[in-house]
Amino acid sequence: MEFTRTTRKLRAISMISLIDIIFTVILFFIIAGHMEKFSIIPIELPMADSGQKLDEGPIVVLLGKLGEVIINDEYYTGPEVGEELKRQFQVNPERIISIKADAQMEANSLVNFFELIRAAGGKNLSLVTQSGEVMVTQ
Questions:
Q1: Domains in the chain and their CATH numbers?
Q2: Both ends of the chain: CA-CA distance in Å?
Q3: 3-state DSSP assignment of residue 115
Q4: Per-residue DSSP letter, 45
């Protein structure tokens, strides 16, 4: 018994949907690559004319102009700050501590915080600033 075979027409494979998917994935990675980590409190860094660009150390401290202290994304108040710094330096006393202090913060408060770090056992300290022109207003 013989059957007649029917021939099917070959359909062209549409590449348009594949191209759309590829461009969508590329767009996602472009957008995700440019997202920045936001700060919990707004910090305006002071200007510096000189200095070296350093990588942020393993301990990052944010000091707000109203006395807020954030160590490695955790908010601390009063005596908790000294205890946390001591705990951080017990692991490795040579750790670098990067301080991001608000430009509007009082200098005495910043010096007192430096003393607190030294009392906790910190030795390597970097104060993060932004480079640029200093504007003087009258």
A1: 47-131 (3.30.420.270)
A2: 105
A3: helix
A4: P
Half-sphere exposure of 92 (CA within 13 A, CB side): 8
Q: For the full predicted model, state whether its pTM sits above 0.90.
A: no
DSSP assignment letter at 68? -
Asked whether 115 and 78 are in contact (CB, 8 A), the reply is: no
Q: 46-64 pLDDT, tens per residue?
A: 887 776 655 445 688 899 8
To 10 degrees, what angle do helices 107-120 and 79-91 make? 50
Summarised one tens digit per residue, pLDDT across range 67-95 is: 889 988 888 888 888 888 888 888 777 88
Cα 1 from Cα 15, distance rounded (Å)? 42
Encode pLDDT of 8-54 as tens digits.
787 777 777 888 899 999 999 888 877 766 667 788 888 877 766 55
